[in-house]
């Protein structure tokens, strides 16, 4: 059955990539969620999508130029008064939140614009120390990063993210050492899903918010839909 993964948490209702958004996603019946990670100036793994702070917080500048203490002083409510004072979480805090829930966590490494040295190793260490290996998927648009993870010997599932149509993604993902493809809605077609499944690859599609797209993808038996509105997807899947 197709799983529901909340995109940056239940980001259609709560500030993206925050603990309240992840909590709400679980309340709405999500099987798991997708989140984004970067490194602080002092090499802490934090959960935030943009490389800069302006869009989702009241801060300014690059995430990489701030210490964790600096970032914890910011308001990450994304202008939502109901969630005023919400902080940027660390990956460790997210793991603590979901420890007893059984939820899956798709960690996207945001290392395309800034090549964070050591991000892969730090994420793997946190997964191990929090005993989350059975519930984590690692993904990235930076396929060099996926290849690096594969070279490190990780047995965690690896997902190749892409937005535009990719020629024979089932072959390409296999050469990377990936175990899943993460195509956009527009890049997902029946043949791709069928061929990926034939080659033992999972298909996790982003960002699926329109009911018509949800119904089409359910008909294709994709393995997960990544959505801002997990309650809507859950209602359709049952």
Describe the protein's architecture and organization.
An eight-stranded parallel beta barrel has the order 1-2-4-5-6-7-8-9, surrounded by six helices. The chain has about 240 residues and is α/β, with parallel strands linked by helices. It contains nine helices and nine strands. It starts with a strand and ends with a helix.
What would the average pLDDT be, to the nearest integer?
97
- The parts where pLDDT drops under 50 for at least 5 residues are none
Strand order in space, largest sheet: 1-2-4-5-6-7-8-9
Largest sheet at a glance?
A: 8 strands, parallel, barrel
| Beta-strand fraction estimate | 15-25%
What's the number of extended β-strand segments?
Answer: 9
Radius of gyration equals 17 Å
H and E order: EHEEHHEHEHEHEHEHEH
| Helical amount | 25-40%
What structural category arises from helix and sheet content?
Answer: alpha/beta
Report the principal-axis shape. globular
Q: Number of helical runs?
A: 9
Distance between the termini: 10 Å
Brief description of this entry?
This protein is α/β, with parallel strands linked by helices and 238 residues long. It has helices at 19-27, 68-72, 91-98, 119-129, 143-151, 169-176, 190-198, 211-219, 230-237; strands at 3-7, 32-39, 45-47, 104-109, 136-140, 158-162, 180-183, 202-205, 224-227. The longest helix is centred in the middle third of the chain and has 11 residues, at 119-129.
